Q: What sequence folds into this?
């Protein structure tokens, strides 16, 4: 991942929108971001991480991240980051979030969008998964590309287990962790095996023998069933005939009984028919007339009641209208005089205003007098402050010439500080050089007991070893010959006539060679060879010991040479630095004099600053008094203007008076005039309101009175019409009573009171007639059918019992056949299922054995740890290339048998010690070496051609010498096609880096980015 451009606004201490163009920075290969503590350097890395992954190192979701990340003076935050991925494609990530205008601490979650630049256009992506674009998870990103504060030594200090887990994640080693997969397969196989064994327990009685027995039993039952079926058919036919005959005789008996019952009901049905026909006739003729009569009578009574109510309302309305007319006549004279009274009311209001204006004019005159006195007081204060400011300015003019130039003081102070640092560095370097010389002398003393020449000792030892090898070779050759002779002696002793020779295969052995016994000679040779081997090992051991001492001496000599070069360079720097002292005002050898003058200058500067503060305070007081004076002048002008306006208003009001005179009321009080005005105004208002109310009521009541008279007349007319209709209805009823031979209406009402349902009664009568005739015909038919038959109950019972007995036997045998058939089908299915289960059981058992072997192989993630250790050793090798250079071959990094990091200390005979014993600077060096090696490995997996690496930590722990070494290491990364960015406040490092950003924090504007 290579950064192109970053835009941030409203984030942490960044208030204004600012853009960082990384193109110039990345082209330099090595760049830095510098600034004081808390200026906002690390916030740049946090912005990049949050833009890409929505994660930050300092804050998480539980920390109200959106609220805490947003600048407290901002209402919105915005991040835009452009970058190139490992496929050389250009992408953009944007995130923004806003503050709720009604609730300050409610910051809405950020919206995120990713874009890809295609044909110079930004095309939005349908996802925001940065891992797909960069090829790294957030954890890997912060370990290999951007290493935030507090995380630099994480990898070095992790325990073996945590480091293995980290290696699994970074290098995808979980693909080698097959323990869980095997465990899952094993558990699944075990579960399936247990289920299968449980299923097979239910098949223990299922076998071929049992199925054969059931089939034989079924055959016997089938034969028995056929015999019973024949017998059942014969008896069943006979039983059915007798049963049918019995049912016919019983049916005939029941029908005769039903006929007797219907004969009794026939008289009632005939009577019902007569009543129904009479009711139907009367209902059709008289019921509509009776209903009409009742309706007319009710309507007449209702209209008569309405007439009484409306007549009463008419009387009340006439009375009310008469009273209203009388009230209007009484109020009319007062209403006609209302115009004159309102003019008088208006005059009183004008006089009341004139009296109030007169009082206000007196008050304004008093306030103008007091205001003039205040103006004189403020003008005096202004003169005093101006005098004091003049005195303070004179004091400043006296002190300024005595103060030293600030730049001069800083430059000279920096010169003395640099001289002190160089002197201390020279002393320390001298001590280091002397220490190296002492170590070399100590190692030379270790070589004296060996009495060797360092130039020729290798050849001398080689000559001794070669001589021993020659002797050993001669003795070995002789030993081989004696062993052959001994073997031949053994073969010769074993030869017998008629037996095959193991060498030539002959059966005859005419001349058998005889050999002397060589065992003692062989033993002597073996001792000589072992003695030579021991001498050789002793010489090699001595050689290795000398070589190890010489290697240590070489290392220290190289280190001494390096330290002497550094000492020489520091000495040159001291000389060059002395020549830079160009200030004649001071003595280069007398720093105390400079410090005294600088302190005096500081004291004068404090005095000038204090006077400046006093001047600023007095100027503020002066400005405040001037503002007060201006406000007083404005107030006085306003008082004068208001007084003139009110006097003019009095004149205007006096000219508008029409009835009353101002002279007659000028001496009265405001309360007296106000009381007269309110009484008159109230009286005028009541008169006008009462008259309008009466007129309105008269207009409303007049049409209502006319309407009520019309309603009463209409009701009287309708009552007469209804009474005529009622009389006509009674005449029609009398006519029909006569025609139908009824003496009065009471007889008709008696018949109608029965309330017979005509249709229902007719249906009932018709059904009875049909049932009666049907029953008579059925009895006649049965008598004809049974004329030649008789029925014997005892004979029928005997046949019935015989039929039921054979029926039960048939059912029992049939149930047995069905049961046996089902059982055989079940057993055959179960037997087939059992065979399949046994085959599956065999497979699972074999699989269980294989899984057991695999479980032992991958138990305890041992295979992953083994692969992880290989990766770790490779990382150590890569890290040591730079670590050796940084420590001048004094220290080395290695893994112990527990896969924990250890330090090999060549200054202490190459012994190992814990990484926790490293100083802060050394820990930074080894962490940097490891981080670079880790980044190379991870980004190699991502297949990126050019790599970017950002460090936010550690340089403050380094001395000047170590900073130089680290800087050289970082510079060398440019040759490896890597871009390195660092964040630091170390000034020595800033001077060495060609391109950098400077972060400055302004109290008003927040963090500001400057390119230096």
A:
């Amino acid at each position: 991942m290579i950064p192109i451009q970053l835009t941030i606004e409203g984030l942490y201490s960044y208030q204004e929108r600012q853009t960082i163009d990384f193109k110039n920075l990345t082209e330099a290969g090595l760049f830095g971001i510098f600034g004081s503590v808390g200026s906002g350097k690390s916030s740049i890395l946090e912005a990049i991480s949050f833009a890409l992954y929505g994660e930050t190192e300092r804050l998480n979701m539980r920390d109200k991240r959106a609220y805490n990340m947003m600048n407290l003076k901002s209402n919105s935050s915005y991040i835009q980051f452009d970058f190139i991925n490992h496929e050389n494609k250009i992408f953009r990530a944007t995130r923004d979030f806003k503050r709720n205008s009604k609730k300050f601490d409610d910051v809405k979650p950020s919206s995120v969008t990713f874009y890809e630049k295609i044909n110079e256009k930004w095309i939005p992506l349908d996802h925001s998964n940065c891992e797909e674009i960069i090829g790294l998870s957030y954890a890997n990103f912060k370990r290999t590309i951007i290493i935030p504060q507090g995380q630099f030594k994480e990898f070095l200090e992790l325990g073996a287990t945590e480091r293995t887990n980290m290696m699994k994640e970074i290098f995808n080693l979980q693909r080698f962790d097959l323990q869980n997969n095997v465990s899952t397969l094993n558990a699944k196989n075990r579960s399936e095996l247990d289920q299968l064994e449980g299923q097979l327990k239910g098949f223990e009685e299922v076998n071929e023998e049992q199925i054969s027995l059931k089939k034989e039993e079924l055959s016997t039952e089938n034969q028995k069933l056929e015999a019973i079926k024949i017998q059942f058919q014969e008896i069943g036919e006979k039983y059915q005939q007798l049963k049918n005959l019995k049912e016919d005789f019983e049916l005939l008996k029941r029908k005769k009984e039903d006929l007797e019952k219907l004969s009794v009901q026939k008289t009632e049905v005939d009577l019902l028919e007569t009543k129904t026909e009479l009711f139907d006739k009367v209902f059709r003729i008289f019921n509509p007339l009776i209903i009409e009569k009742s309706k007319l009578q009710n309507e007449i009574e209702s209209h008569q009641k309405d007439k009484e109510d409306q007549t009463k309302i008419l009387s009340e309305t006439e009375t009310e209208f008469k009273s209203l007319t009388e009230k209007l006549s009484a109020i009319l004279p007062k209403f006609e005089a209302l115009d004159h009274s309102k003019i008088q009311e208006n005059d009183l209001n004008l006089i009341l205003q004139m009296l109030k204006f007169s009082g206000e004019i007196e008050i304004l005159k008093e306030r103008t007098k007091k205001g003039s006195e205040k103006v004189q007081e403020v003008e005096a204060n202004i003169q005093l402050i101006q005098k004091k400011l003049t005195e303070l300015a004179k004091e400043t003019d006296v002190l300024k010439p005595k103060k030293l130039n600030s730049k001069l003081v800083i430059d000279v102070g920096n010169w003395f500080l640099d001289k002190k640092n160089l002197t201390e560095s020279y002393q320390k370097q001298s001590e280091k050089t002397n220490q190296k010389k002492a170590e070399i002398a100590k190692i030379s003393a270790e070589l004296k007991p060996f009495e060797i020449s360092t130039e020729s000792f290798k050849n001398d030892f080689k000559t001794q070893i070669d001589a021993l090898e020659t002797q050993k070779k001669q003795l070995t050759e002789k030993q081989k010959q004696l062993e052959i002779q001994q073997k031949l002696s053994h073969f010769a002793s074993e030869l017998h006539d008629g037996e095959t020779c193991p060498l030539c295969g002959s059966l005859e052995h005419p001349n058998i060679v005889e050999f002397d016994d060589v065992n003692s000679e062989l033993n002597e040779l073996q001792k000589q060879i072992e003695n030579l081997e021991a001498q050789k090992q002793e010489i090699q051991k001595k050689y290795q010991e000398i070589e190890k001492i010489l290697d240590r001496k070489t290392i220290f000599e190289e280190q001494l040479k390096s330290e002497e070069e550094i000492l020489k360079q520091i000495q040159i720097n001291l000389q060059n630095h002395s020549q830079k002292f160009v200030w004649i005002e001071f003595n280069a050898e007398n720093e105390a004099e400079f410090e005294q003058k600088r302190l005096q200058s500081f004291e004068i500067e404090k005095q000038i600053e204090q006077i400046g503060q006093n001047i600023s305070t007095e100027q503020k007081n002066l400005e405040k008094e001037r503002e007060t004076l201006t406000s007083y002048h404005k107030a006085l002008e306003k008082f004068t203007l208001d007084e003139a306006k009110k006097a003019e208003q009095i004149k205007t009001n006096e000219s508008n008076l029409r009835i009353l005179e101002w002279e007659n009321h000028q001496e009265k009080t405001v309360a007296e005039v106000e009381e007269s005005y309110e009484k008159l105004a109230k009286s005028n208002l009541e008169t006008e309101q009462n008259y309008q109310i009466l007129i309105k009521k008269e207009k409303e009541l007049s049409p209502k009175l006319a309407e009520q008279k019309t309603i009463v007349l209409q009701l009287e007319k309708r009552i007469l019409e209804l009474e005529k209709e009622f009389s006509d209805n009674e005449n029609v009823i009398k006519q029909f009573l006569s025609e139908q031979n009824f003496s009065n209406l009471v007889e008709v009402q008696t018949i109608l009171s029965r309330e017979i349902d005509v249709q229902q009664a007719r249906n009932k009568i018709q059904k009875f007639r049909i049932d009666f005739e049907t029953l008579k015909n059925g009895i006649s038919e049965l008598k004809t059918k049974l004329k030649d038959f008789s029925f014997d109950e005892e004979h029928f019972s005997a046949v019935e019992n015989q039929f039921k007995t054979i029926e039960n036997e048939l059912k029992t045998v049939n149930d047995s056949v069905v049961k046996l058939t089902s059982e055989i089908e079940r057993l055959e299915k179960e037997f087939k299922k059992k065979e399949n289960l046994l085959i599956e059981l065999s497979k699972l058992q074999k699989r269980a054995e294989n899984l057991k072997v695999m479980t032992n192989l991958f138990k305890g993630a041992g295979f992953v740890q083994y692969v992880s250790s290989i990766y770790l050793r490779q990382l150590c090798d890569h890290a040591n290339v730079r670590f050796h250079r940084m420590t001048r071959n004094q220290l080395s990094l290695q893994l112990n048998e527990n896969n924990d990091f250890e330090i090999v200390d060549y200054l202490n005979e190459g012994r190992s010690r814990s990484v926790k014993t490293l100083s802060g600077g050394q820990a930074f060096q080894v962490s940097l070496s490891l981080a670079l090696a880790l980044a190379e490995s991870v980004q190699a997996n991502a297949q990126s051609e050019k790599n970017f690496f950002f460090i936010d930590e550690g340089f403050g722990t380094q001395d000047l010498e170590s900073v130089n070494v680290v800087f050289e290491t970082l510079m060398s990364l440019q040759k490896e096609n890597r871009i390195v960015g660092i964040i630091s406040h170390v000034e020595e490092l800033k001077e060495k880096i060609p391109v950098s950003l400077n972060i400055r924090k302004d109290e008003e504007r927040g963090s500001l980015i400057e390119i230096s």
